[in-house]
Amino acid sequence: MTFNLRVMVESDGENAWNKRYPAAARAMEEHGADFIGTQEARLFMLEELAALLPGYAWMGQGRRGGHEDEHCAIFYRTDRWELLESGDFGLSESPDQLGILSWKTDYPRMCTWAKFRSLQDGTETAVFNTHLDHISEEAQVKGMELIRERMEELSRSSAGLPFVLTGDFNVEPDNIVIRGLEAAGYRNAYSILPAGDTDQVPGMTFHDFQGGERGRPIDYIFSSPDLTVEAVQVDRSYYDGRYPSDHYPVCAQLKTIR
User: From CA 60, how far away is CA 58, in angstroms rounded?
Assistant: First the structure.
C-alpha cells in the first residue's frame, strides 16, 4: 500500500488529523498489507497510528533528520517479516545528509528504504518509499534518478533482490518520471488495468477530501521486473463515515516470478 496521510493542518477543520486518524488506521488495517509506504506523517501521527495497529511496526527518519518534520515511514507486518536493515537518503545533491534543498525545491525531499526477510519462507525483498517535490520538475526527475540508482545498487549487492517502490510522486502518468520508470522495465501496478479513458482508469488519487474518481493519479506502486502485479486497487471507501485522507490509499498484490 502507498498512502499519503495528509499532515496535521488545523484549518482542515473536520478533516484535520486529530479527527480522522482512527479512520486512517482503519483503512490501513482493512487491507492487511505486508508493507505500507506512508507520506506526510509527523512523529506524533506515526505514534498514534502505531497504537491502533499492533500488528505493525514502522521505521524511517523525518526529512530534516532524526524525527524532525514529515516522514516517509514504512509500516510492515511483524507476523510476516523481519526487518534486516534500513536507511534514509535525501533527494538532493548531498543525499547522505537529510534536510538539504536542491533543484529548486521548497522543502527537503527524501526516500526511506528497508530490506526484509519473510518469516514464512526466508525470501528477502526491499521496499523504497518517497514523496517527490510538488513544484520542481528538475527535482522530480533528478530525485527519481537517485532513487533508481539506490534501488539498483541494493539489488546488485544482494544477489538480485526484488524491490518495490511506493510513493506520492506528484506527477501524472504521462510525465517523464513515470515514462522513464516504465521504459527502464519497472512494473507500474496500474499497467494491469484495462485500457480506457485516461481520466477514469485508474482515476485520480488526490481528491482534497472531495471524493470522486475522474482525474489522474499521482500516487504509485512500482516494482522490479522480477515481480508481477496480480491486482491493484485505488481505495475510495469511507472509513468511520469519512475519507481517511485527502489522498486515496493505493494497494497492489505482487508475486515473485519464479
Answer: 7
Contact 129, 167 (CB under 8 A): yes
In sequence order, what DSSP letters do the residues of 50-66 get, joined into one string?
A: HHH-TTEEEE--BTTST
pLDDT at 48: 98
Please check whether residue 245 is in contact with residue 237, taking contact to mean a CB–CB distance below 8 angstroms: no
pLDDT of residue 258: 67
CA dihedral 29, 114, 91, 47 (to 10 degrees): 40
Helical axes 137-157 vs 176-183, angle rounded to 10°: 20
With vertex at residue 55, the alpha carbon angle to CA 206 and CA 25, rounded to the nearest 5 degrees, is 30
DSSP assignment letter at 15: G
The distance between the two most distant Cα atoms of the chain, rounded to a whole number of Å, is 50
pLDDT along the chain (258 residues), means of 10: 98 97 98 98 98 98 97 98 98 98 96 98 97 98 98 94 97 97 97 86 97 97 97 97 98 90
Between helix 17-31 and helix 43-52 the angle, nearest 10°, is 50
209 three-class SS: coil
Whether this prediction's pTM lies above 0.85 is answered by yes
Spatial separation of the C-alpha atoms in residues 12 and 6, rounded to whole Å: 10
Residue with cell 534518478: 145
The radius of gyration of the chain's CA atoms, rounded to the nearest angstrom, is 17
- Which residue from 231, 227, 191, 197 is spatially nearest to 214, judged by alpha carbons? 197
Q: Are 79 and 98 in contact (CB under 8 A)?
A: no
Which grid coordinates are listed for 76? 510492515
- What distances in angstroms separate CA 20 from CA 33, 129, 168, 192, 209, one per listed residue? 20, 23, 20, 32, 11
